[in-house]
Structures are given as C-alpha cells and as structure tokens.
Specification:
alpha+beta, two-stranded antiparallel ribbon, 6 helices
C-alpha cells in the first residue's frame, strides 16, 4: 500500500509494464500564470492543505455545502470515459496550472489508484488536536461523556450527563442539515423510527406514491368546523 500511495501522489504508473513512468495527460488549455500564495493554503512535499474557509455560526447553507464537499465520492463517474485503446480517461473538474484537463490511466493502474483510496483497517479517519486530543489532560473536562486521561480525577457527581451520550443519526441530521424527523408536524408529538429503507427502487416507488397522493388529496384541517349545538327552550 505504501508503494501505491507514493505512485498516486507523484502521478506515476504503479503497476503494469509502464510502472514508474509518468501517466499520460492532455493539456488542452494554456498554462496559467503563477499566482501568489493564497491565504490559508500551504504546500509541502507534494501535499497541500487548505484551511482558508471559515463558517459563521448561523450560516447553515454554507455548512451544508462544506459537508457535501467533504462527503463527496472519490471518483465522479460522469467525468470518466473509455478511450479507443481501452484506457480510462478522467476529466479534471478544474484544469491544472500547466493546462492539463485530462488524465489517461491504464485499467490496471486505475484500479491501483482506487485501492490507494481505501483506508487501512483499524486506522482512525478523524484526528483531534488541542484539548480534544486523546491524551490531553483537560479532555475529560470538556467532552460530554467525560472521557480522557483525567477522567478518574473528576467525581461522578460533577458529571451532569451519562457516559454514553453519542447522538443518533436522526439527531445528527437535525444538527447538520436542520431536518427534523423526530417531531410530528401535525400534533407536535415525538416520532419513533420503525424501519430503515435503503433500496433505491423501493424508495422511488414510495416517493412517487406519496407525490401522487398529495396531488389528488384535498387539504384537510386538523379539526373540522361544526355548527353550534341547537338550543332547546327550558319551558
């Protein structure tokens, strides 16, 4: 895997008869002039780190775009194509500074690059620094579950929350995308998840049925109006 990583970041063929050589690229636009170093961007040893994006506390739309960006798939299928020789042609979303717009990969080398994207087993994909680091002395004082090196020094009475306080997927959906699925829109009561449907064909059938039902049904009020009760004479 280390060999695949090295060939992937240096744009060299990892496997096959052309192992070690540069991959084929197509330069269809003129090279861009060297720009000044952007604020919040660092480059070293072939790696680049971009930390120039800030999100305000109430910018929910900007947060959603950032979450969609970091959760995007590794390869965009609509930008993949086969050449006449049977190689894989990848169209770049943004041309490189030297004018490169397409990268040509052999099928075996393309699979090697996909394998390099698979995270190794038992490897942490999220790393925390500062007081959130695993071995920081103050981590137990700021995390809701009270986990950390100093957890033994904190009395149980000082912990207002239970030990297991991880959010459910429904709570995360509400926190990130502001989508509420645990509260009924009609009565305001609490809803319970009874099933999770993951088959795309079945999901499309259910959504199509609900859309058709919404178009045919008449809007109903929560409580139907009624006339006042009849008054009977006392004598």
């Amino acid at each position: 895997m280390d060999d695949l990583f090295g060939h992937s970041i240096t744009y060299r063929v990892a496997m096959g008869p052309r192992a070690g050589q540069k991959v084929f690229t197509l330069q269809t636009v003129p090279a861009a002039l060297p720009e000044e170093q952007k604020k919040g961007v660092a480059q070293a040893a072939g790696f680049s780190l971009h930390a120039g994006i800030g999100i305000e506390a109430e910018a929910r739309g900007k947060l959603e775009r950032l979450c969609r960006y970091v959760s995007r798939p590794a390869i965009a299928e609509e930008r993949l194509a086969l050449t006449q020789r049977g190689d894989i042609q990848l169209q770049l979303k943004t041309p490189y500074r030297d004018g490169t717009t397409y990268v040509i990969l052999e099928p075996l080398d393309f699979l090697a690059r996909l394998a390099a994207l698979v995270p190794p087993p038992r490897m942490h994909l999220t790393r925390y620094h500062g007081v959130f680091a695993p071995h920081h002395a103050l981590r137990a004082a700021i995390t809701p579950a009270g986990r950390g090196r100093s957890a033994r020094c904190i009395d149980a009475e000082e912990r207002p929350v239970p030990k297991h306080v991880s959010m459910t997927w429904a709570q995360r959906l509400k926190r990130v995308f502001a989508i509420e699925i645990e509260t009924c829109r009609r009565c305001g009561g609490k809803l319970t998840v009874i099933a999770s449907i993951e088959e795309p064909a079945l999901i499309e059938r259910i959504l199509a049925h609900l859309e058709q039902r919404r178009q045919t049904e008449q809007p109903r009020l929560p409580f139907a109006s009624r006339a006042p009760p009849p008054q009977t004479p006392l004598f």
